[in-house]
Structures are given as structure tokens and as C-alpha cells.
Amino acid sequence: MSQITTHILDTTRGTPAANVPITLFIKVGDEWQEMSTGVTNDDGRIGGLLADSVVLDAGTYRMHFDTQSYFDANNEQGFYPYVDIVFNVDGSGSHYHIPLLLTAYGYSTYRGS
After folding, report:
1. CA–CA separation, 10 vs 3, rounded Å?
2. Out of 28, 43, 76, 78, which residue is the most buried by the measure of CB atoms under 10 Å away?
3. Is pTM, for the whole model, over 0.90?
């Protein structure tokens, strides 16, 4: 399994958010470098954002969720065109699950398991 996984739930509809583009970045100095991209599946998940063999170094990472494309596809006016979740990795090889609970006018996240 990828060291970083995510899923998105549309809590307004009570369904997974499919076809949401996601980009993973690492912070290097004052810059963000893109590491990988993917799109959520019908279950709102993206499990293979990184190859299973990739072990992340300690550092600061960012997941960019292109929520505007999701709202557009659902003919919905969203307030947040994107969501960036910035988090720290400790370098231990631990698994990081970064869920996003999404509505048109709000979102929340937590460290999942």
C-alpha cells in the first residue's frame, strides 16, 4: 500500500467524491515540488498516489485537492475552488491517511488510519 492514501466524502450528498484531481507536493526550502498526481475513483479514494516502495523522508508535504472541478462536474457552486492540506511526515515509514470531508461551503480533515 502507498504510504499516503486519501479519500473524499461529499457530506452534503452522503456519497464519495469521484474524479477529483489530487496533487502531492513536498516542501523543499521555500518552494513546493510536485511529487505525484492522481484522481479519486468511484469510491472517492486514491490509494496509489505513491508507489508502494516509496518511503517518504521527514518533512512537510501538501495535498492539493482540485475541488472546483468536482463542483463544476456536479453543476454546483462551490465556495472553495481548492483545498490544500499541509502536514508533517516524521520519516518513520508510517502510513498517512489524509481524508477530506467536503461540502460546497465547508470542509474538514483529520489523520485517518
Report:
1. 24
2. 78
3. yes
| Res. 83 pLDDT band, cuts 50 70 90 | very high
| Bridge partner list, 70 | none
Is 8 in contact with 42 (CB distance < 8 Å)? no
Closest CA to 3 of 64, 63, 53, 65: 53
Cell 489530487 found at? 22
Put residue 4 in one of left, alpha, beta given phi > 0 → left and psi -120 to 50 → alpha: beta
Catalogue all structural domains in the chain, each as residue range(s) with its CATH number.
Answer: 4-109 (2.60.40.180)
Q: Alpha helix locations (H) across the chain?
A: 67-73
Q: What is the model's pLDDT at position 22? A: 98
